[in-house]
Amino acid sequence: MAQQTFSGFDPVLKTVFEGKLREIINRRCWALAVLGKSPRSYEGRQVTYPVNLRRNPAVGARADGGTLMGRGSQTYDDTAITVKYMYLRGGLTGPTIRAVKSQKGGFASALAAEFNLAIKDFRKELNFLAWGDGTGTRCTIDATASSATQTAASAGQATPDVGAAGTRYLREGMAVLIGTAAEIAAGTAETATIDSITDHDTFVLTASKSLVSADLVVEGDASGNSYNNVPMGLLGIIDDDTGTFQSISRSTYGNWRGTVLANAGTLRAFSDELLQRAFDYVSRRTGSTIDTLVMDPSIRRMVLDQIIPDRRYADRKFDKGWSYLSYDAGDGEVRIYADTDCPFNRIFGIDSSTIQVYEQTPIHFADDDGHILRVVSNTDAWEYLLRADMNWGSDNPAANFVIEDVEGGAIDIGP
Fold first, then answer.
1. Which pTM value belongs to this model?
2. Digit-coded pLDDT (tens) for 160-180
3. How far are the Cα atoms of 21, 100, 103, 105, 325 from residue 17, in angstroms, in the given order?
């Protein structure tokens, strides 16, 4: 007689379902956890306050009985932080909700899982934007090509595009617009959907597109997009450009520019002297004290190589769920953090008293009519809307620095 086999007995065997839904996606959010929140609540379209931008220049000495200098005065201007409107939209079918009301029907309640993970995704998006320049650009196209497979400029390439994001801010399934800033504004940019992310500099669209080197990739579709509609980030706050920031011209008022130490796009090794020079530069310009350093983990590895034997660096500490090293730059403790969303090849030095998030309304589910879920017309389906009305701002950009063009270790970015 034939003996029983494992495959023959398979219909009788049980499947053991263990534990709860596992999360494998990085959703850590440094900016919301560590950067301060303005204690002032506000309504209306913006926050405005005056800034003293120049000293009274009429100061000096004269001989006995000499004629005094002309009259001078302080120079002031009003800065404005405008509110930005962030959204996350989702939905479930009625049968899904009814079939998985609790863990009896699945590993997690469908509604609870969607709501909890949506909040985490929303916070992660804000963390990406906190490091940006206020445009919402997720990456740039590296090479002109007509294909579904495209390359993004990346600091992780064999010949690195210094500081470039690569595919790290793209999301599978995301609708995007791809084109120049003018094309995005005119509504003529290419519309596309991210099908998959191959590696740190390659991604695949659902259809072939003819794209040009240096084209911008932003979230959006034919009906609307994020370009220039997102909150301001640290790259825009700590910038030494000559544009306008928070309604004040940086061309007219140099004191309104951030402190940037660059090397013309050429990578250089990290050194303690370079870091101390940045501290001293900020102190000389503003009299402020840097209390926080943040960098990508690839830079942190280079920093650790030099600081481990330095007695000015203390052991690891913890604050607000984040671990950090502390460093004594001569004016007190400086906290050193690493964040995986931090732009490559840069070290940010922050006086945390000068950068805050201004919230008109914090992250919340839209429930103006008393309901979080809304029925979708003509179908057994429901949708929800998560939103926040906020922006990051600074009352003294020059009190913060960014060291650019810092050579880091190998950059590893998964799909």
1. 0.86
2. 788 899 999 999 999 999 999
3. 11, 15, 11, 12, 41
